[in-house]
Amino acid sequence: MSIVGSHLSFSWPDDTPVFQDLNFTVPAGRTGLVAANGAGKSTLLKLIAGLLPPTGGGIITTGGTVGYLPQDLPLTGEPSVAEILGVQGRLHALRAIESGDAAEEHFAVIGTDWDVEERSRALLDRLGLGEVGLDRRLGTLSGGQTVSLGLAAQLFDRPEVLLLDEPTNNLDRAARQRLHAVLDEFAGCLLIVSHDRELLDRMDRIAVLEHGALSVFGGNFAAYEEATRTEREARERTVRSAEAEVKREKRELQQARERSARRASTAKRNLADAGLPKLFAGTMKRSAEVSAGRAGQTHANRMAGAQARLDEAERQTREDDRIVIDLPDTAVPAGRTLFEGDGLRVRDVFRDLDLTVRGPERIALTGANGSGKTTLLRLIGGDLTPDAGQIRRTGGRIAYLSQRLDLLDDDLSVAENLARSAPTLPDRERMNRLARFLFRGDQAHLPVRVLSGGERLRATLACVLCAEPAPQLLLLDEPTNNLDLVSVGQLESALGAYRGAFVVVSHDERFLAEIGIDRRLTMDNRS
C-alpha cells in the first residue's frame, strides 16, 4: 500500500501554478503532511483522492480503496447519519425483509452485509457518537460531531489508503483521544494534513511540502523539529562565519590600500631625493603601481568571494519568522481584578457559574464541545448578557478574538487598520511595530482581504495588542484552528510578550503548554 506521485503538476484555471513536476512516495504507515498555508496541502490530498485532475504527471495509489475526509465539512443539511455512512439503502432493505418483504432486490442490496446496523452503531460508539441515532439529521450535529461522523463514514468501508485534512479541528479533548485510538489501529497507508503537534507526534514520518518539492523525514514531528532546529543552527553558524570572513577581508583590503598608499608616498619621495632622470623614475613609478594594483586586486577578489559566500549563506537561511515584541502597555498589576461573574446562568448552556479573572493570569477554558466555552468568552467580553447572575468589569480594556478573526476592515490595508486602532501612533512607529509582527515594507500596505489565515491572525494581533488603550484582558477562541505550524509558533511568540491576562479556549495541549497556562476551568454544561 502506497501513494506514488510522478512528475505531478497542478495549476488553477487562471494558470496559477500550485506545484510542478512533483515526485514523491508515501509508503504504508502513518505520514503527517505539513507546509505553510497556501502551499497546496489540501490540493494535493484532493488530487490523490481523484477529486481534482492533475495538469501534468500522475498519481498511483496501490493497495485498494481510498478514503478522504476534507477539511471543510458541511455543517448543515438534511442527510441522515445513515446516508452519510452510506448504509441507508442496506438498512432500508433490511427493514423490508424483517417486515416480510422477500423481494429479490432487497437481498441483492444487502449482499452479505447482514450486520450492517450493528457495525454502524459500533463504529459510531467508538467515535463518541453512540447516542446519535442513524436517522439523525446532519444539521442537528455540532461541528465536532460532524468531523467524527465524517471519519466514521470513511472508515466504514475499510479503506486501505486514508487521507485526512485537519481531522482534529473542532474536536474536544475526548474526541481527539478517540481519534488517536482509531488511527493508531489503522493498518493501511495514512496521510494526514494537520497543524496538531500532538497528532503529528504519533506519525511514523513527516512529509514537508516546500519550495515545490515534497521531502520525507523519518520519525515523528518532535524528531523533525529537532532535525530542522539543528539544520537552522548550522545555517546560522555558517552565516556568522561568513560575516566574520567578510569583516576580516574588508579590514585586510583597507590595510592593503593603506600600505600601498604609504609605499607610494615613500617611493615618490625617494625618487625625488635620488635625482633620477624622469624617464627612469616614471618607469619605476609605473612598476610600483602595477605591483600595488595586483596586490589590491587579490584582496578585492578575496573580498568579493567572501561576500558571495555570505550572500549564499543568508539565502539559505530562512527569514526570521519569530514575533519578538515588547508590550509594556498591556501590563496588569498582579492580583488586580479584571472580571468577576457570580452565579452566571445562560439557558440550556450553564448555570451557577462563578469566575474571577485577575492580572496577569492565563486561564484555559476546556471541556466538551457544546459545554459553553465560547458563550462564556462572549459574556466576559460583553457580547452577551446572562439570564441570571452578576457581572462586574473593574477597568482595563477587554479584547475578544473570535474564531472568525473578523475584527479588521477587509477593505483597508494592515497599516490602515492599525492606524484606526492606534490613531496617535506616529507613522514611523506604526511601521516599526508592524515589522515586529513580520509585516515589512510593502507587506504592511496589503489589503486585509488578500491575507492568508496566518497573516490575518498576525495583523489582528498587531491591531489588538498595539491598540490605544492596550487590552489588559485578551479573550481567544480556538486561535490555532486552520493555522499552519509557523503561524502557531508566531502566535505563541506574541502571547509570550503579552503582559496582561488572557482566557483562551483551545483543545491543543501543546499550544496551551507553550503559552504558560496558570489555571484551567473545565466546563461541563452545568458550571
From TrEMBL:
Skewed-composition ranges (Basic and acidic residues): 229-261
One MF annotation (Gene Ontology) recorded for this entry: ATP binding
UniProt key word ATP-binding: yes
InterPro entries: AAA+_ATPase, ABC_transporter-like_ATP-bd, ABCF, P-loop_NTPase
Region (Disordered): 229-268, 290-317
Domain ABC transporter: 3-236, 325-524
One Pfam family cited in the UniProt record for this chain: ABC_tran
UniProt keyword list: ATP-binding, Nucleotide-binding, Repeat
Keyword Repeat listed: yes
Entry-linked PANTHER family: ATP-BINDING TRANSPORT PROTEIN-RELATED, BLL7188 PROTEIN
Protein name: ABC transporter ATP-binding protein
Organism of derivation: Paractinoplanes tereljensis
